[in-house]
C-alpha cells in the first residue's frame, strides 16, 4: 500500500505539521485554537487528514502520529506560556479512539507536560463519542485521571455519533462542541435551530462550556449567541493556518 509506506516515511522525515484554527468568544476575542494535522508530501503535495487518518487508525500508525501531535502541541503551549499575548489561550488536540485506547496514553501526555513545562490547564483533548463504545467505564476512568491532572475534555462532533446522551452523563467532560452540520443551515432551518438550541441548553444545564464549530456567517454567530452559546470556531474568524500566522491573528485582535 503506497499510502501506508508514505505515511511511515512522513513521520520519520518530518513531513507532518500542525495548523491552528482560532477560537473566539462572543466579543471576537481569541480564547484558543484547535490544532489540525497537515501532511505535505514532497512529490504529491498536501494530503488532507480525511485521506490518511482513517488509514493511520487501521494500521496503528495513529499512535506514533498522535504522540507527535501531543508532543508538538505541548511544546507550543509551553512557548505560548512565555508570551504575554498568547499565554491565556487553550489548545485543543484531536484524539482518535485508537490512540485513546493505548495503555500508555495518559502517561504519554503526562510525560510531555513534564518534558515541555506546558501548563496542563491549557491543553484540551477533543474526543468523539466513538471513544467510549468499547468500554464506557474504562474510558471514564482514564478521562477522570486526565481531569485530575488539570486537562480539559471536549466532546467533538457532538450529535453525529451513537448514544450521545448516555456518554454525556457518564464521561467527565468540560465542553460540548456543536458539530458543523448543525450550524450550516442556521438560522434559516427551523429544525437545525431547534437542535442547536437544545444542545446549548443541555450543555449549559450540565455545567459544560459549549462551542460551535463551522461558523461561517455573522447571522449564524448572532443566532448562537442569542441561544446562549459564547464560544466559536469557523471560517468567519479564521481558517487553520501555520503557527506564525495564527500568532499574528491573535496579536491583531488585542
Ligand atoms: O482540517 P480538517 O480537514 O483539518 O480535519 C479533518 C478531520 O481530521 C477532522 O475530523 C479532524 O478531527 C481530523 N484531524 C485533524 N487533525 C487531527 C489529529 O491531529 N489527530 C486526529 N486523530 N484527527 C485529526
Ligand atoms: O472533526 P473536527 O471537528 O475535528 O474537524 C474540524 C474540521 O472542520 C477541519 O477539517 C476544519 O478545517 C474544518 N472547519 C473548521 N471551520 C470550518 C468552517 O467554517 N467551514 C468549513 N467548511 N470547514 C471548517
Ligand atoms: Mn476537532
Ligand atoms: Na467536529
UniProtKB/TrEMBL annotation:
Signal peptide: none annotated. It comes from the Bacteria. Residues 1-254 form the EAL domain. This is EAL domain-containing protein.
